[in-house]
Amino acid sequence: MIKNSCYTCTAYHDDFDCSLRKQYLADVIREDEFKILLEIHGELKRAEKKHGPMLSTAHGAFVVCQKADELARAVAAEKSDGLNDDIREEAVQVGAMALRFLKDLGGQR
User: Fold this and answer.
1) Which of 33, 47, 67, 109 gives a 20 to 30 Å CA spacing to 92?
2) Sequence-ordered list of residues with C-beta below 8 angstroms from that of 7, at least 6 positions apart, any chain
3) 25: Cα within 13 Å, side-chain hemisphere
4) Is position 3 within any domain?
5) pLDDT tens digits, residue range 61-75?
């Protein structure tokens, strides 16, 4: 694995290996939130392998809206007010596409 300069502590190691970053994340992100973020990240990586990058804000907004529409349709089709597997999957896809929109078009701040 190629090591890079860490953004958190400026040491020369991969950012994900940083113990300071891991402790910071543990302090600010609850475990249930972290698991959801991992699901979204997995969907993001799957989509990046399957589809090219978002090329414009209009294209990116269309993709995010399309996924949000699919989520709304899944919610409308559900008889109860629960979060079934289809609704959860659609919500994860909305999160992944929103993250991709920012990643592909917004860069880092």
Assistant:
1) 109
2) 15
3) 15
4) no
5) 999 999 999 999 999
